Amino acid sequence: MKNTPFPDGFLWGGSTAANQIEGAYDQGGKGLSVQDVMPRGISGPRSETPTPDNLKLVGIDHYHRYAEDIALFAEMGFGVYRFSIAWSRIFPKGDETEPNEEGLAFYDRVLDELEKHGIEPLVTISHYETPLHLAEQYGGWTNRELIGFYERYARTLFERFGSRVKYWLTFNEINSLLHAPFMSGGIPIPEGGVPEQQLYQAMHHELVASARATRIAREVAPEAKVGCMVFSMPIYPLTPSPDDAVAVMEADHGNLVYGDVHTRGAYPGYFLRTLREKGIELEITDQDRDDLTNTVDFVSFSYYMSIAETADPSKKVAGEGNIMGGVPNPTLEASEWGWQIDPVGLRLVLNQFWDRWQKPLFIVENGLGARDQLVEIDGEKTVVDDYRIAYLNDHLVQVGEALQDDVDVLGYTSWGCIDIVSASTAQLSKRYGFIYVDRNDDGTGTLDRYRKKSFGWYADVIRSNGASLSF
Ligand code: BGP
Questions:
Q1: How far apart, in whole angstroms, are the C-alpha atoms of residue 392 and residue 315?
Q2: Active site residue 98
Q3: Which of 229, 415, 429, 430 has most ligand 1 atoms within 8 Å of CB, for mutation?
Q4: Residue of 22, 173, 206, 309 marked catalytic
Q5: Span 128-151, pLDDT tens digits
Q6: Residue of 140, 210, 137 lying closest to 171 (CA atoms)
Q7: In b/e form, how buried is each residue of 170-189, taking b as 16+ CB within 10 angstroms?
Q8: Residue 317's pLDDT band (boundaries 50, 70, 90)?
């Protein structure tokens, strides 16, 4: 075996979210989630009710094909699979006192399948799919009552699945709340936007809910490891000017405060200054402060891209990006969707998070969204996705660098290991998978699955524990 920087037991796998993969939006007793009225993704208008042009209503029909999909993951050698539980399958409206048994039973079946193949589950409790009723009747996370509803939901999951699931994530990309209030926090957006006072209060409620979930897990499922999940975004100064460096520090703070609270159990001083300067007074009870001290076991994050930042208003142009765009970096190329590709940024993030938080890290999203062309080779349909292989290879090489820096990394789950509906644009043509799904943006397609070239490539990476990468 060739040398590899990846330690024994490193968890290799893939990652998805219920609202982007399952479909069956109104089956099995499921209620509506905010995603069911977001036919155009984050930036498009919401609809009043689910409309047939919303690709998420069918997704890739994983609700019915999960066994076939998990068998394909097993064929690649996955040791871990990250998926989310749809809150509205378990509590269809969100404020019920009793869970929907049919919803719980579905995830039992998914877990059975994973167990059969020896794949460790990694479960996101809430991935951008707040029950719609909680958004419309309560104002989403601006309302303190959501803490209690989430608590009941989390307790239900820990009680039911706690002995079968070791790794849990409380909220997907919790630091996206201020950038995408409806998708991330179920907060209806009035004309003129959500007042900042309410947004920051919602942020506080989610942080308390996350910490309470950790507390409950300790009681109910003592073997469980609970992590937070943030999007990571290295930010470079556009020039060497000290003012640009300060602009970077401040932008960084806006993203890092969530991880700081989750790992330290209290708000950092720089955040309190931001609140003071904005004239925001948060309602924080003594109980909240006590709850926040329930810090996480590990930190997980997504990584797709980096941005630049400047203090010079004339140079401040907004580029495209995951959750937040930034000033484009002139030294980097971008994906077809304008996300700038930066493998080295992943090493920087891993080192920064490790140095800052000293908690094991889990890379739970990374990948390239690209348009794929289905072709036939030797009678088999496939995609020759060398661009995806290059992207993933270069990022994994940087994970290897971070491991040599002695950063503690538990595992890597590439995003959208099978093609799913995009979160930002609600397209199916923005594909991340090792497995091609025959479904198009207009909703046509057979939903058949095909192995892409990257499928065999990733299987080799996993089998060799990273030794087959081109360093
Ligand atoms: C993250 C989300 C995912 C996801 C991914 C890729 O922000 O956690 O749900 O989809 O980004 O983004 P997109 O699907 O918009 O390409």
A1: 31
A2: no
A3: 415
A4: 173
A5: 999 999 999 999 999 999 999 999
A6: 210
A7: bbbbbbbbbbbbbbbbbbbe
A8: confident
Q: Output the CA–CA distances (angstroms, integers) from residue 462 to 13, 75, 445, in the order listed.
A: 8, 11, 31
DSSP letters, 183-218, are HHH-----TT---HHHHHHHHHHHHHHHHHHHHHHH
Say how far apart CA 4 and CA 464 lie, in whole Å: 8
CATH for 11-463 (3.20.20.80, 3.90.1140.10, 3.40.50.2300, 3.40.50.300): 3.20.20.80
Q: Is the pTM of this model over 0.85?
A: yes
pLDDT for 333-379, tens place per residue? 999 999 999 999 999 999 999 999 999 999 999 999 999 999 999 99
Domain ranges (residues) in the chain:
11-463
| Integer Cα distance of 377 and 321 in angstroms | 35
- For 427-463, write each residue's pLDDT tens digit: 999 999 999 999 999 999 999 999 999 999 999 999 9
* pLDDT tens digit sequence for 174-197: 999 999 999 999 999 999 999 999
Which residues, in sequence order, are CB contacts of 54 under 8 Å at separation 6+?
36, 37, 38, 39, 47, 426
**Distance, CA 16 to ligand 1 centroid (Å)?**
9
**Residue carrying the six token digits 């999951």:** 157
Q: Is 276 buried (19+), middle (13-18) or exposed (0-12) by CB count in 10 A?
A: exposed
285 Cα to the center of ligand 1, angstroms: 34
Say whether pLDDT at 2 is over 70.
no
Contact between 368 and 432 under an 8 Å Cβ cutoff? The reply is: yes
Ligand 1 atom at shortest distance from the alpha carbon of 231: 7
Enumerate residues lining ligand 1, CB below 6 A.
17, 128, 172-173, 231, 302, 322-323, 365, 369, 415, 422-425, 430
The token duo for 387 is: 């661009």
- Tell me if residue 22 is catalytic: no
